[in-house]
Amino acid sequence: MRGLTRRWRRRHPENAPAASTDPRLLVRVLAARQLDGPDAEAFLDPSLLRLTDPSAIRDIDRAAQRLLEAIDARQRIVIYGDYDVDGITATAILRRMLASIAPDADVETYIPHRVEEGYGLNEQAIRKLADEGAAVIVSVDCGVTAREPARAAREVGVDLIITDHHNPPEDPAELPDAFAIVHPRLGNDDGEELCGAGVAYKLAWRLATLSAGDQRARPAQREVLVELLALASLGTIADMVPLIGDNRIIARHGLSRCRSSSIVGLRALVASARLDGSGIDAESVGFRLAPRLNACGRLAHSRDAVELLLTDDEDRAIEIAAELCRLNDERRATEKSITEHALALAIEHGLDTDDRRAVVLAHEDWHPGVVGIVCSRVVEKLRRPTLLLQRKTTDAGEVCSGSGRSIEGFNLHAALSDCAEHLVKFGGHDAAAGLTLAAENFEAFREAFIERVNAELSPEDLITTTDYDTDATIDEITLENTVALGRLGPFGAGNPKIRLRLVNARLAEDPRPMGADGKHIDLRLEDADRRSPRVLRACAWNWSEHVTGLRRGVPVEALIAPKINEWRGRRTCEAELIDVAPRHADAPIVVVSRNAQSVGAAT
């Protein structure tokens, strides 16, 4: 029963408040997350009234005033987005608010083509948009390092407003010379780590209040702001920013509105993912909604996804949503093929060994729109920072361009900064990044990057540790307790799903295969001392290869995530099996079998 990871660790055991010994399961879990008193109350009640006022963000008033002036002067505004879920939703958020304030405003949207133009603002597009009449260009989810495009905007007389959340240059002198730069962490080290959609939402909020000439928006704009929470929640979850503070509030209230949203395209997307008959949580976004929006930008053009979130035509929305489903199926097949190839190459080049602790690969056949998600798959398998690039020939010569994903505790953006001499360009944040370099520099870059990773990470750091909140008994995994624990959701980055350690369990029955292909396992757990008649069902996803030694009567310790199963109106409590290990009275548990995936991993 041994699998992928090797350690279990109780969350914050040395700093947990005394309440960690409380007989109430919810209180013990809150204590494990260092939440008690007012902090716990605020976390369990993420009211919209707790959202941070946007006016504290640098340049936000300057940006909002310029946009309102452009509306009044009937100047053309272009919203320049990005092709991922965060950029798509950010674009739609800003466009919908401007339309609410002034339905006849001259506002266009522009999304660069992932393959033909690449990530972020580009000079050619800026000049083209200016030629077509743009007076103001406002970026969303990109631009904080775009010095040359900003210079081009100045040259052609366009006011460039940058809204972004990615890591800015370390030297403020390296910031773009833009009309305004709206970034929650610029000049404020304690600023919220919002995603692009979150920053766009704050700008939309400020537009609403400034247009009303008051600290309170007009009723029509207040209603729009509430509806836009649904879009902001998609970007927040898909971009895997920490689900605490404002992000938690946005995600909690936005998710609750997705299924019944007044946004026609969002309802069509939900229906196409077969989620219209159930509640929508962070996992629904990460594994079903976000991949469909992302597939458009990976294999086609994200302007269709933007149209989906802006159209009021139900037939058109259904048509686009169906096409996104088709593209997502195609993306999954392409992803599977590249993943198998990348893993084979990594092993062939010895990039899975203790002395080469990063994966850096390039191949001409890899689709540039899919390599980012393949990086996540390789990280899951090999547990090390991964960069995957497509090798291609351009007018400027042969280049390698692609994406990277990191592991917990390793700042990918900082590592690329240290290797910048080998790169043409790069950008991103701690956990994910994009990069381009001349093909002739690939080998030198690979060695420099691996050397940089080796200097910071030891082989021990590559052993994934699975945190859990507290010990629990099977008797405590009740419907009432599981509902109470659900108040800590939504779960994701910065607020992982609740994991409990069952310390005195055993298998009540032999494992049973589950699913059409039998790759999942149905386990039944009971109290090892038979003090309780309760039997807990635990679903072990993709565990068919990890059942050796699991049989009826075997005493085990297990890591589980409690969950509620709803079927035909009936609610029952069960669990997702995170890990299991044999219980030995004379030895601690040190073997961990499966590594829980984050909710954004499939996007």
**How far apart are the first and last residues' alpha carbons, in Å?**
29 Å
**Structural class, from helix and strand content?**
alpha/beta
Number of strands: 19
Low-pLDDT parts are 1-5, 585-603
Task: Give the rounded overall mean pLDDT.
Answer: 90
- Gross morphology is globular
The largest sheet is: 5 strands, parallel
CATH architecture type of the largest domain: Alpha-Beta Complex
Strand order of the largest sheet: 3-2-4-5-6
Helix content: 25-40%
- The CATH class of the largest domain is Alpha Beta
Strand composition percent = 15-25%
Alpha carbon gyration radius: 25 Å
Q: What is the CATH topology assignment of the largest domain? A: inorganic pyrophosphatase (n-terminal core)
Q: How many helical stretches? A: 17
How many domains? The number is: 3
Question: What features would you describe in this structure?
Answer:
A hairpin with a 5-residue loop joins strand 15 and strand 16 (520-527). The two termini are 29 Å apart. The chain has helices spanning 25-32, 37-44, 60-72, 85-101, 123-131, 147-155, 196-212, 219-238, 245-258, 264-272, 282-299, 303-310, 314-348, 371-382, 412-418, 442-456, 479-485, and strands spanning 7-10, 76-80, 107-110, 134-140, 159-163, 180-182, 359-363, 386-394, 397-405, 425-428, 432-438, 465-468, 470-472, 500-507, 512-514, 520-527, 535-540, 555-567, 570-582. Helix 3 (60-72) crosses helix 7 (196-212) and helix 5 runs parallel beside helix 6 (147-155). The strands form four sheets. It has a five-stranded parallel β-sheet with strand order 3-2-4-5-6, with helices on both faces. The protein has a five-stranded mixed β-sheet with strand order 7-8-9-11-10. A five-stranded mixed β-barrel has the order 14-16-17-19-18. The model is unreliable at 1-5 and 585-603 (pLDDT under 50). The chain folds into three domains: 7-33 and 469-582, Beta Barrel (OB fold (Dihydrolipoamide Acetyltransferase, E2P)); 49-218, inorganic pyrophosphatase (n-terminal core) (Alpha-Beta Complex), CATH 3.90.1640; 349-462, Diaminopimelate Epimerase, Chain A, domain 1 (Roll). It is α/β, with parallel strands linked by helices and 603 residues long.
